[in-house]
């Protein structure tokens, strides 16, 4: 066995620092850099996801480009559109894609004025359009 050929050592070294302090040096994917850098970073993340996840992101991005004045796309509307296109089979599947997007800071969730959760991609329209072209 390979692991028996080495002399491994383990040290417990807690920093006792709050999580915010520990992660302050890790920049957010879409919050740092210029538009070109954020587009490249988002593209790398999206390419690592499944084709269905990419398609769900595309639906959200196309909606955002077509409705720039709105606060975002309601989750229920995204679910309906994705279900019509056979991209998701249940709300659970959509939620797993959305969690992946949130974990990589590809989307933000806001409360709409009517209380619904709305999804928003934090990119300017030009960068979002370029991202969709490169994703295709």
TrEMBL record:
This is Origin recognition complex subunit 2 winged-helix domain-containing protein. One of its GO terms (cellular component) is nuclear origin of replication recognition complex. Residues 67-126 form the Origin recognition complex subunit 2 winged-helix domain. Transmembrane segments: none annotated. Signal peptide: none annotated. One of its GO terms (biological process) is DNA replication. It comes from the Eukaryota. GO terms for molecular function: DNA replication origin binding.
């Amino acid at each position: 066995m390979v692991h028996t050929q080495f002399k491994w050592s383990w040290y417990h070294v807690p920093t006792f620092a709050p999580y915010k302090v520990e992660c302050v040096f890790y920049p957010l994917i879409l919050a740092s850099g210029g538009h070109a850098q954020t587009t490249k970073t988002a593209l790398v993340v999206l390419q690592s996801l499944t084709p269905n996840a990419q398609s769900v992101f595309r639906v959200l991005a196309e909606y955002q480009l077509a409705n720039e004045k709105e606060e975002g796309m309601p989750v229920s509307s995204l679910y309906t559109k994705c279900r019509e296109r056979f991209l998701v089979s249940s709300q659970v599947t959509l939620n797993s894609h959305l969690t992946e997007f949130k974990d990589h800071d590809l989307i933000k969730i806001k409360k709409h004025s009517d209380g619904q959760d709305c999804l928003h991609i934090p990119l300017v329209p030009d960068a979002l359009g370029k991202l969709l072209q490169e994703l295709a």
